[in-house]
Amino acid sequence: MSLAKMTLQGLEIFLQYQNKSIFDLLTVPEGIEKENLVDNIMLECGEFETLYADPDFMRQAIGSWSLKHQATFTRWVNALSIEYAPLENYDRQENWTDVTDADTTNRLNSTVTANNSSNGTNSTNVAAYDTSSYSPSDQVIDSSSAQSTSTDASTGSGTEDVTFTHGGRIHGNIGVTTSQQMLQQELDVARFNIIDEITKLFMQELCIAVYD
To answer: Distances in Å between the alpha carbon of 49 and those of 44, 71, 74, 140, 211?
Structure first.
């Protein structure tokens, strides 16, 4: 193998004749564009010699290397995706849920009893033709008795739990750093380029970075 094929670019050219790429087994998490990463690696490391001279072995090594750092790459993506207020350094959020037991029992028991009775006697007195005094002629006795009883009883009970949910948030600058300092830190974070960071890691572990 010639000296040209000892470089990353040389190994890639060699594999392309076999319809393969040295980056075929490279895997990246969602949020990173593989094509952009490969282009940047070739741009930054293409002229460096590789740690392994065999093209197929180097191809396998790149795949294993990317799997080893997959969790790190994922954390970088997640960290850069967090939304926050750059000029705030305190954000406290609380949520509470209160449950109140309301046990109400309503009972109504009523009994109504009605008793009605009546007794009556009707008499008719007639005077004889030869006397002025009256004597009973006929007598009607009317005796009636009525009784009615009614009972009304009702019972009701119910239990209902009442739930209250409320929350609060306190946020802003609590004064440990100035707004200008936080702004400078935000600019430093913005300079973090995940493609460049992965490329640097690739260079350190898979390339022999010797500058002529």
So the answer is: 12, 27, 28, 141, 10
> Euclidean distance between the first and final Cα of the chain, in Å?
21
**Strand runs labelled E in the chain:** 49-50, 90-127, 134-172, 207-208
Plot region of 172 (φ>0 → left; ψ -120 to 50 → alpha; else → beta): left
Distance CA 56, CA 31 (A): 28
3-class secondary-structure state, position 99: strand
pTM greater than 0.70: no
150-154 contacts at long range (C-beta below 8 A, 24 or more positions apart): 150/112, 150/113, 150/114, 151/111, 151/112, 151/113, 152/110, 152/111, 152/112, 153/108, 153/109, 153/110, 153/111, 154/108, 154/109, 154/110
154: confidence class by pLDDT, cuts 50, 70, 90: very low
Q: Where are the domains of the chain?
A: 3-89+179-208, 99-161
Q: Helix H segments across 55-163?
A: 55-68, 70-80
